Amino acid sequence: MGVYLCIASNSVPPSISKRISLKVQFPPMLSISNQLEAAYVGQDVTLECKTEAFPSSINYWTTERGDMIISGDKYEAVAMDNGYKKFMMLKIRKVDKSDFGFYKCVAKNSLGETDGVIKLEGKLFSFYMFLSS
């Protein structure tokens, strides 16, 4: 996909040029750089997911139960568009034990859908860390 410039020249001026925009339709593709994240209870954590699709996809996050996550006091879901690419982030504020588990980022367009799973697990509080602080 992109913009291409075609130039026709036969040694007789003037040369002719034409700008062509090529758009390729394709179902969503998804990548996750960290499929396992860890956080302490009380910490904020951000999960990340990247997608590509054309036509543009509808993107959202779900819990492991399949409930769609809506931004509010607990969660902040952000998607940044850059043409056919989207960067998704899910910020979970003040993590507690009930937040540990699996989160799914989902991308859908008219040609298909895909999803990716990120596991959020708890970090163990080290007694050594407690003594050294």
UniProtKB/TrEMBL annotation:
One of its GO terms (cellular component) is neuron projection. InterPro entries: Ig-like_dom, Ig-like_dom_sf, Ig-like_fold, Ig_sub, Neural/epithelial_adhesion. Keywords: Disulfide bond, Immunoglobulin domain, Repeat. It comes from Acanthoscelides obtectus (Bean weevil). Transmembrane segments: none annotated. Residues 28-121 form the Ig-like domain. This is Ig-like domain-containing protein. Signal peptide: none annotated. It comes from the Eukaryota.
